[in-house]
Design brief:
The structure is a single chain. By secondary structure, the chain is an alpha+beta fold. The chain has one domain: Aminopeptidase (3-Layer(aba) Sandwich), CATH 3.40.630.30. The chain is 24% helix and 27% strand. It has an eight-stranded mixed beta sheet, with helices on both faces. The longest helix is centred in the middle third of the chain and has 15 residues. It starts with 7 loop residues before the first strand and ends with a strand.
Length: 177
Amino acid sequence: MSAVSPPLQVRPAGPEDGFKLFSLSQEFVANGLLRHRPLADFEEQLGDFLTVSDGDRLIGCLAVRRLAGAPGAAVLYNFCVLPEYHGRGTGSALLAEATARWAERGVRSLYTATVRRDNWFWQRRFRRVTASEAPAAWLEQLDPARNSLLFVRELRAGVTASPQADGWATETKEWAL
């Protein structure tokens, strides 16, 4: 008889999560998938982060912040999920929560940059954009040496769906993935 694993918890980062977020991100920094950020950045930007946990173990996170000088625009950054949780809908659950929360807060365009060359973002309703289509303030923060692909997703308030279709919004989500 196999054990049933508890549902994954998607929630906003709390004061106890700064070091956990930093530690989780280091594997992805080492693989070139994320930019290095000092621990202080995680601690100062906790309000930007959503986390997903399996029991007490932090297994994924993402952050969203508004773009200064670009009304209705925000940037998705530091998005990572432990490899052993890939293919289970974990990243989709995080993204669904983030898009719903930020759409309700008036964000209409969610930008991201990635070095991934697969279709993950495209499959979740992001579309490729050129540098000329992206907010200049955001482009100035990117490292051109990373050769990142730029994406945007248009958001709508009040959209609710499954994590596969994106769009849930509550304080804490439990996903049976």
